[in-house]
């Protein structure tokens, strides 16, 4: 399959589609958008040459020139139909990135699907505006899909709609650019732009967080207690004496050996405004989790207990991104 | 294969076709040599990646060649000069760097040169060259956008594009034919007279006849003209194609009289024949005997009492005209005394022996018809038809009649006419063509120079009666197909004929005739349809109407489907996006409208109005009913107007 740089086109995965008919529900059909038809610079030259040939033909009575003009007009007319058909049922959607930060460029993949059974779609260009494509895919085979990488920048945090983008094609002759201005379905969760916090404030915030939290569970630390056995627990931590006493298995729990968990409070960061505070908290959350600490968050009306891992990171940053949404 | 190499291959294929066209057309030899050298050099340099000549130098050379070919301008050779100038441009383009735009220019110039060359030499081979160039052009146009985006050619993609290209060409063919027929032709094209240098053909027919002249061209296989018989053929009798009537003679040479004669009112009708005559440098045109009328374009021609058709100027280009004829060997004409005297005048130096021979053959017979028959019979005895006439001493006719007794049509016709005149029978020589090869596939006669002929008309009992004293006359109309032994040649000639009649000669008159024929056929359909057929036509029309209604309604419903407010919002947003105010992801409708309004001076109220109303409908309590939508449409229309007016 021919590729332009960073652009790929593949047949659809069978799990996502009925035979020969990929699912297009989450995509926006190009023809649903506002129609865009423009003559390209090459097209303008071609039309001028055709007009010139027509004038010479009429004035010279040269039937061969009439034949040329007639053939080119016929080809142009049919190319219009072909260009229209090239975009028929072609749909597009933007795929949400792992992380998007307000004010920072984020790389997004645009997926173009061609659900037609027989006809490939050619020369599909995608960009913020028609005529300025971020990428062009040469061919999307019938029933196939292709991806074009895009770079977007969301100025503010929150759950944001995708910006309008142009899907166009100059197929077949490159004389006319046609397509549509479409908005991809779905939305993108944009985290607040991280704002660096002075170190003393970090310390103060972490001290304050420590007072309201306990160390997280782990190994090597102090004994915390016991709980009912759960499948998967290490047999070395099973409290066998409980079996004799209670006739049921229990597992011992210990605190982690590392740094204590940090809980960042909304009012512990300097701000001054709400957006700045959220940005500072985003920076603190990101830095804390990177250092391997267990991180929690206390926002007005919302408290998230400390935790680690990718899901905790998404939960914390998502809460910061959505802060104030319902207000 | 590299993508660029494929684009170059298309460009060089176009160059090769143009070189062939320039070589086949009557253009200066420098034109095709230049193209060939530029093509070969450019290809070598493109493949070997040698150092190129700087573009500025090439441009200067191209301009010098272009203007050098055009200056000084000559009206007669303007077409050749223009085409040569274009070949200079093409050579420079082929030799230089080739961007996408250069490829387009190469295609345009190649098509212009081939079409222009075809106008100088209207042969079917140029049609083939042009069709090939158009196919290559379509493939090139298809490939060019891809060549800019990929380095290497993917075989599968190329195969699919080629199939699409060929399909496009195939589907374009009927539309091309329709457009070719319908594109308006000018009755008097402005530049028509600025064509190429007139072609000088060879013809045995002119306004005079010199003994020995026809013999020089009789061996030529060149086509003199083609005659298409309306309603099909062949003609029941061997056709005599009348060219010139020669009445004045000095014994060796026969000439037309040059007398102006009143036009005779002729009976209309007869067989309609369309003639396509090759340029021959003389004024004579040809008509099947006996002609009753002729027209060139829409202009009816006077064929006069002599029943011949003459042009005011020598024929320099292929011409198409229509003639009506009634196949017959005689036609009635009252002979005025001075015309009778003209057709009885004998050469001053006529040998006595010829008079004596004619008198002896006539004997005591007084009936002109019998006398003519007796004189004619004399030529069927002991005379030999040959194009190799021995040199005779003294009078050529005397040598022919009494010496070697060998000659061809001119000798027989001249001797017979003179002998008739000695017996007081008005006679004249008619030159033209006899027979020709009937091509059934095209219902036309192909008449070559080998069929050039001369015969005699004698005025008997108020009629001009045709006599053909040449003994081998019947054999002159032998068939082209059997003689050359080639069905392919026959098909090729049919192709040439059709190319000429359907393409090269198609003009405003043909368009008019076609429209009239179509109108007549429609009238015929209206008047002459049977009841059943009319019902069937009505049923088909009704079915088509219902289908159109269903599809139209479906399309309308589809168009109306969806959220009408969302459609208007999308339109508003796209208008804003195109004018630099794309809605930001975080932006609310009112803020967006406000920002857009700043960019549309004069349309602020409409933009703000749209923003407020759409927000009220979408997020507020205002229902998106017909009134609101109409109001939104009004705002959109005003915004569009302001944008269109550049406000």
Task: Present the secondary structure layout.
The complex is a heterodimer of chains A (327) and B (647).
Chain A: E1 8-10, E2 17-18, E3 21-22, E4 28-29, E5 34-39, H1 41-60, H2 63-87, E6 91-95, E7 105-114, E8 121-127, E9 135-140, E10 144-153, E11 158-161, E12 164-169, E13 176-183, E14 187-190, H3 199-211, E15 217-228, H4 240-246, E16 250-255, E17 262-265, H5 274-290, E18 295-299, E19 302-307, H6 310-322
Parallel strand pairs in A: 17-18
Antiparallel strand pairs in A: 1-10, 2-3, 4-6, 5-13, 6-7, 7-10, 8-9, 8-12, 11-14, 12-13, 15-16, 18-19
Chain B: H1 3-24, H2 29-48, H3 55-70, H4 78-95, H5 100-120, H6 124-147, H7 155-182, E1 208-210, H8 213-217, E2 223-229, E3 240-246, E4 248-249, E5 253-255, E6 271-277, E7 284-285, E8 287-288, E9 291-296, E10 299-301, E11 309-310, E12 319-325, E13 330-332, H9 337-342, H10 352-362, H11 368-379, E14 384-385, H12 396-403, E15 406-407, H13 409-422, E16 427-434, E17 437-439, E18 444-448, E19 452-460, E20 463-467, H14 473-476, H15 480-484, H16 487-504, H17 508-528, H18 531-560, H19 564-578, H20 589-598, H21 604-619, H22 626-644
Parallel strand pairs in B: 14-15
Antiparallel strand pairs in B: 1-5, 2-6, 2-18, 3-8, 3-16, 4-5, 6-12, 7-11, 9-10, 9-12, 13-20, 16-19, 17-18, 19-20
Helix pairs in contact in B: 1-2, 1-4, 1-5, 1-6, 2-4, 3-4, 4-5, 5-6, 6-7, 10-13, 11-13, 19-22, 20-21, 21-22
